[in-house]
Design a protein that fits this description.
Elements lengths: L8 E6 L9 H9 L3 E6 L9 H14 L7 E3 H5 L10 H13 L4 E7 L6 H12 L10 E4 L2 E2 L9 E2 L10 E3 L3 H10 L7 H17 L3 E5 L15 H4 L5 H15 L5
Helix pairs in contact: 4-5, 5-9, 6-7
Length: about 260
């Protein structure tokens, strides 16, 4: 397996430490294809636990998936972007990400959280990735992955690893039983996030027991002109952020980058 600096590179972008659970299989697929895998975390994850502890947990999980230690970057901590406050720093992250992508022309694939209304940091990272100048004309290499969303639900209810139909056709890859069980064990490797995983883990179990596929979708910049789905978004129902504030952050980003509103 080639791992030198000239080999193709697969880029995985995560808002928070542990969001990698949505693409365990895809990370290993990219490794099996002989590509270098870079994993970048864009906020410090400080809302729910000590950032250094969260960094260590994700670092350990990703190394078990074969990611090189020096290819795991905690950029959110480096830039001081707080968990839940990415909407206040969209320009800063866009500048950093644009420079990184421009300096790595060997990137052949990129994976970002879906435009799905689950968490504002997820949606904003999606929007930033689609808008950075280094990605213009390269949207074909980007795939989005679902983490959680609440389309059609009320209160605290949500779906996990369930792509929104509005984001287009789903590209499915079957995951074998050995890998399914291994990935479930990895989901237990984030003890600092036990409160979150009390809600997430049962649904992840159901996914791997009754479906088990890695599900990806292409991206479409025109989707960013409207909220991900009709009705209140999950992060609005949880009072994390409202759609108008998130939309204003995207408008500010577009103005800074000299792009037009989709």
């Amino acid at each position: 397996m080639r791992t030198d600096s000239g080999s193709p590179l697969a880029l995985f972008l995560f808002p928070h430490q542990d969001d990698e659970f949505g693409v365990f299989y895809q990370i290993e697929q990219e490794r099996r294809a002989g590509r270098r895998v870079f994993c970048i975390f864009v906020t410090d994850g400080s809302t729910t636990a000590d950032p250094l502890r969260r960094n260590a947990e994700s670092h350990a999980v990703l190394q078990r998936l074969g990611v090189a230690p020096d290819a795991i970057l905690f950029v959110g901590q480096e830039l001081g972007i707080a968990d839940g406050l990415l909407h206040t720093r969209v320009e800063d992250l866009a500048e950093w990400l644009n420079a990184f992508i421009a300096s790595h022309p060997e990137i052949v694939s990129c994976y970002v959280p879906a435009w799905e209304g689950g968490h504002p940091d997820h949606d904003l990272l999606h929007a930033i990735t689609l808008h950075v100048p280094a990605m213009r004309g390269r949207l074909d290499i980007i795939r989005q992955f679902s983490l959680y969303q609440g389309e059609g639900y009320r209160g605290p209810m949500f779906r996990v690893l369930s792509p929104l139909p509005g984001n287009g056709p789903v590209e499915r890859q079957a995951v074998g039983w050995v890998d399914r069980l291994r990935y479930l064990r990895l989901c237990l490797a984030y003890p600092s996030q036990w409160r979150s995983w009390v809600g997430l883990f049962p649904f992840v179990c159901l996914h791997y027991l009754f479906d088990g596929a890695q599900q990806l979708q292409r991206v479409d910049g025109q989707r960013l002109a409207a909220q991900p789905h009709a009705g209140p978004l999950y992060y609005e129902r949880r009072a994390f952020l409202d759609w108008s504030t998130l939309r204003a952050a995207i408008d500010r980003l577009q103005a800074a980058l000299g792009t037009n509103r989709d």
